[in-house]
Fold this protein.
Amino acid sequence: MPSVDDCDLTLPAAFWLPTDDRGIPSGRSAAVEGTPYDFCQPRTIGTTRLDHALTGLARDRDGRAWAHLAANSGSGTRVGLWVGQGYGWLQVFTGDPLEPERRRKAVAIEPMTCPPNAFVTGEDLLILEPGEAVTHTWGIQVLNGGGRPARG
């Protein structure tokens, strides 16, 4: 079964959240530039282990931030996840701690309104009073080589 190692990943995030050996955030967000977590431009995942929250999302003119994953199979097809304005964080996971038959077989990208541990730090935490509501939107799109939605 193929792994994500040969896939190209694009994440529109300027910052990543460092964690300790148990995966608990261990400090303030740090710039991705020059780190293994810099996927602002498409690049191959390779051996990079991802189980991190990223923020500082770049957005298009519609206010959406896009993450893309593409297999290097030559098909030109890629999967895009977009998140609307309410989502300021993406949690990205390559499955490294999973059992061997599931390890690095997929990339999980979870839209989040706040970082992990926000109940402790209060960072970007949304607090709704009784009767209040919030709605955020996100979506997934399969794109062909020209960037157009795939048919089928």
About this structure: The beta strands are 8-10, 13-16, 30-31, 43-44, 51-57, 65-70, 78-83, 89-93, 108-112, 138-143. The CA atoms of residues 5 and 45 lie 5 Å apart. The helical segments are 118-121.
